[in-house]
Design a protein that fits this description.
- The protein is α+β, with helices and mostly antiparallel strands.
- Helices cover about 35% and strands about 20% of the residues.
- The protein has 8 helices and 14 strands.
- It is globular, with a radius of gyration of 23 Å.
- About 30% of the residues are buried.
Length: about 350
């Protein structure tokens, strides 16, 4: 058993006592049954081979081990699992997501997560705007699946990662730290995300959970992450599950590419206004706008069309939205400060 520790001497003694007690309890266990069914029911804690003890500054927590990776610390938790910062066997930082069967009421949603990985992983490394999945593992006996991803930039020291203070940068943290982002930057992000979205749709997949917190940065480039809800594009007439994040889900549900476009439009609205998505379509009075030669109003029109509640009046493909964003980017002049406005996105 390999234990990595950064504790002070008194905590080190506590750790040794913990491990001694653990070994004694393990030695008292009966030999495991050769029956595969019996092994399936064996508790995870009954085998030290399945345990890696991760030691932090003040706590000790047991997590399933991931081959050839040192699990450093948990950097994020969700309803169905957690994300860990890890270091691989050659010393590179990676992000590892663990999805636990115990977090689901039944087997179906757990299998849905795995099926989404099966569909997304083969294409994840085929476009720079998609988070790259480097490896997927499934351990039904231990009750979890995991996948290894490229680690995102640090929110403060980007792209340098200090494991002791690391917090991944995403679009939401950018907005929290900077407020409303410059129009040129938001349009640039929109183009890069729309390119990745078009690539995903070309492979007959939809994301279903596009929002600022799910856009991470790797070497400064925005990438779509958190792919747990990725699934096939719904067939015409097929009923779809209304799943995703409130405010980013279109009125008809998230089963088609136009639903992802709706989400992207809302994401761009939040980025350019720093308002909650629930405030759409208002733009705050006092918002300082760079002198864009009237292009800010054009950008609001594009957002309004992307977020149109009537599906038939919305952009139908990511390529359509992408074309308009690129044309707008060409017309944007650099720099300059204009006045403040109060605008309704949908006129």
């Amino acid at each position: 058993m390999v234990v990595r520790t950064r504790l002070l001497s008194d905590e080190d003694r506590k750790l040794r006592k913990f491990l001694t007690t653990r070994r004694q309890s393990l030695a008292a266990l009966p030999e495991p049954s050769p029956d595969p069914v019996a092994n399936e029911k064996t508790p995870l804690m009954a085998s030290e081979e399945n345990i890696q003890t991760v030691v932090g500054p003040t706590t000790i927590s047991a997590v399933p081990s991931v081959p050839d990776h040192e699990m450093i610390r948990c950097i994020g938790k969700g309803a169905y699992g957690e994300v860990w910062l890890a270091k691989d066997i050659i010393g590179e930082f990676k992000a590892v997501k663990l999805i636990r069967r115990a977090a689901f009421a039944d087997q179906a949603p757990f299998d849905r997560e795995f099926k989404g990985l099966q569909k997304y992983t083969p294409i994840s490394r085929s476009h720079p705007g998609l988070i790259h999945i480097l490896h997927v593992g499934r351990r039904d006996v231990s009750g979890f699946i995991y996948y290894i991803m490229e680690a995102g930039d640090d929110a403060v020291t980007s792209p340098v990662i200090d494991p002791a203070s690391y917090s991944p940068r995403n679009l939401s943290t950018d907005i929290e730290r900077q407020g409303a982002l410059p129009l040129q930057q938001v349009v640039g992000f929109g183009i890069e995300i729309a390119e990745a979205l078009a690539h995903l749709h070309q492979h007959r997949l939809i994301h279903r959970d596009i929002k600022p917190a799910n856009i991470i940065f790797v070497n400064g480039r925005p990438k779509m992450a958190d792919i747990g809800l990725v699934t096939d594009i719904a067939s015409p007439g097929k009923e779809t599950t209304c799943i995703g994040t409130h405010g980013y889900i279109p009125p008809e549900g998230p089963g088609e590419p136009s639903g992802d476009i709706f989400s992207l439009g809302m994401l761009l609205y939040v980025a350019v206004t720093a308002l909650s998505v629930q405030n759409f379509p208002k733009v705050p009075e006092g918002l300082k706008i760079s002198s864009q030669g009237g292009q800010f109003g054009k950008f609001l029109e594009l957002i309004g069309r992307a977020c149109e509640p009537i599906k038939s009046e919305r952009y139908q493909t990511a390529e359509e939205f992408l074309t308009d964003l690129r044309e707008l980017q060409i017309r944007l002049p650099p720099g300059g400060v204009g006045g403040s406005v109060a605008v309704d996105v949908r006129k």
